[in-house]
Amino acid sequence: MKNMLVTGGCGFIGSNFIHYILSESGYKGRIINVDKLTYAGNPENLAGIDKKFPGRYCFVKADICDRQAMEMVFEKHQIDSVCHFAAESHVDRSIVEPDAFIKTNITGTFNLLELARSHKDKILLFHHISTDEVYGSISDGSCFTEDTPYHPNSPYSASKAASDHLVRAYGTTYGLPVTISNCSNNYGPYQFPEKLIPLIILNAFEEKALPVYGDGLNIRDWLYVTDHCKAIWLIMQNGKRGETYNIGGDCEMRNIDVVKMICDLIEKIMPRPNHPHLQELITFVKDRPGHDLRYAIDFSKLQTELGWVPAESFETGIKKTIKWYIDNKNWVDRVKSGKYMSWIKQQYDL
Ligand code: NAD
Ligand code: TYD
């Protein structure tokens, strides 16, 4: 793999992946990052990377749904591998405005697959980044395996499920070398503060309400983003073509416990004498429609076949994350000057 197309590289996981690939992975080739720069895409996440790695990074602002623009990228940069992150990624938005999810997540993925098919002689791998949410909600005591039937419940997860099926079908029908990874909830640096963890951290810094949907008893499995990036790279190098790998953090937590832990850690890291306890800011708000109760991942296939296990525990990862948001106040201020807060306030009557 010499010319790797990374889609959505200015988003949360994509930018962490590019940092990891160029700095730590041992990959010697070039990264061509194609991103449409939606509200969630932030080139600042990769500021200075082209100078740090001369000749190894190139940015193209384009929409993956634009077949002509993407054809030019494949041709001009002699793309030989694809790591496909670009997506609309926020469940709440998918409930209010599903159109963009169908376009980018399904049609956009289809476009890339068609391009990969027409350049099949050069394509060594098409790796598709997906989510555990395609499996739906699972009851206590069991975990999603790669064989769990798909049962997506939100427009977001349904669109990701559709894209997974297309990727697998292109592997089977056209012999395209594909791999798919389905990962649990990520957290870490550069995450846009519409998702639970950065939203709670940043609201807590400002002593604003900490919104918890419903009764806060929904369970998610949490994974530090760099662990996800390492797993993706391992699968890209050594994963069996045509296969799916689940990636998880072995870290199931109820939302309310995540929020309380963040409150307690912030109070320890930044003591605030004479202020009310942050936990007092927790505000239960109306529940998300179709809110999945529990996600839990069995990643034993990835562990057994490729030797991957997460390096970070939730405690070590969340401490790093809180510190990152403290140390990167300028990034936070610039991101917050956008419109995300007003959208959230409007949705949840805060
Ligand atoms: P994100 O919303 O932070 O970033 C998405 C990026 O894709 C942005 O840079 C955006 O500008 C870009 N993009 C959106 N539409 C585009 C289009 N039409 N053309 C080109 N670029 C476009 O998302 P994320 O959290 O980094 O997630 C990345 C991928 O990982 C997604 O496919 C998501 O489904 C998957 N995933 C995310 C999580 C998680 O917890 N965040 C967990 C598992 C899987
Ligand atoms: P989120 O970060 O949006 O990820 P996902 O919906 O993909 O799992 O939400 C994580 C969990 O936190 C989910 O159960 C919804 C809940 N949640 C809140 O309780 N409050 C919030 O403000 C947000 C954004 C999410």
Features:
350 residues, alpha/beta, Rossmann fold, 7-stranded parallel sheet, binds nicotinamide-adenine-dinucleotide, binds thymidine-5'-diphosphate
CATH-defined topology of the domain at 3-192 and 222-250 and 295-313: Rossmann fold
Number of helices: 13
CATH superfamily membership of the domain at 3-192 and 222-250 and 295-313? NAD(P)-binding Rossmann-like Domain
Shape: globular
Low-confidence stretches: none
Helix and strand element order: EHEHEHEHHEHEEHEEHEEHEHHHH
CATH classification, class level of the domain at 3-192 and 222-250 and 295-313: Alpha Beta
Determine Rg (CA atoms, Å).
Answer: 20 Å
For the secondary structure, the number of strands is 12
Q: What average pLDDT do the residues reach?
A: 96
Terminal CA distance reads 48 Å
Taken as a percent bin, the fraction of beta residues is 15-25%
Strand order, sheet with most strands:
3-2-1-4-5-6-10
Reported CATH architecture of the domain at 3-192 and 222-250 and 295-313: 3-Layer(aba) Sandwich
Brief summary:
The chain is 43% helix and 16% strand. It is an alpha/beta fold and 350 residues long.
